[in-house]
TrEMBL record:
Record domain DUF6891: where: 3-183
Organism the protein comes from: Vibrio gallaecicus
Pfam families, sorted: DUF6891 (PF21831)
Top-level taxon in the UniProt lineage: Bacteria
Organism placement in taxonomy: Bacteria, Pseudomonadati, Pseudomonadota, Gammaproteobacteria, Vibrionales
Protein name: DUF6891 domain-containing protein
Length: 188
């Protein structure tokens, strides 16, 4: 298999197993990534196979996965004034932008902070590289940002996650042993 096909196959796997993409989304991704040397027919056929493999694997997953627990934390944080986004854009700047867009849909003062992970974080998490969470305060500087992070940390630890964070704004909150299992889109 050549590099182009392997690169696109890896992207297909991340998108299927990430749980946020439908088969149509993954087919569109292939269209975006196709370049000379790609075996389009094989790549497109692999999408259904990958969704079937994921669906089969899900049968052996625990009833409540790390993703489910993270989602519970995100919902709990929302009640505490921190909006949380799954798969927010592809980069840190995309994640901040997406967070601000969501915040503008809510009344001023409802949220004091936000938290997210982005597509590059998802690419690391799906194959077992842990999950990193970004955070920020809506209006504040360092002390307020740390307060947001501490609230996130407390909720994650209540849910049983073991974290890596140095307590400063220079580092995102890491969940090094995050076992990515998101049932999400199960369409075949």
């Amino acid at each position: 298999m050549n590099e182009v096909n392997q690169y696109i196959l890896d992207a297909i796997k991340i998108n299927v197993w990430g749980g946020f993409s439908s088969p149509a989304d993954v087919q569109e991704l292939i269209s975006d990534l196709l370049e000379e040397g790609a075996d389009e027919q094989t790549l497109r056929q692999s999408v259904g196979n990958e969704f079937k493999a994921k669906l089969e694997a899900e049968k052996s997953w625990p009833k409540v996965t790390d993703f489910d627990r993270l989602d519970l934390v995100f919902n709990s944080l929302k009640d505490k004034g921190i909006i949380c986004l799954h798969n927010a854009g592809y980069t840190m700047s995309d994640g901040h932008e997406d967070s601000h867009e969501v915040l503008h849909k809510h009344p001023i003062g409802k949220f004091f902070g936000y938290c997210f992970y982005h597509g590059q974080d998802l690419e690391r998490a799906v194959p077992g590289g842990g999950l990193m969470l970004a955070y920020d305060h809506i209006d504040g500087d360092v002390p307020e940002k740390i307060s947001v992070a501490q609230t996130i940390k407390q909720e994650l630890e209540k849910e049983g996650f073991v974290l890596e964070w140095d307590g400063t704004t220079r580092q995102r909150i890491g969940i090094p042993n995050f076992d990515w299992k998101h049932r999400g889109s199960n369409c075949i």
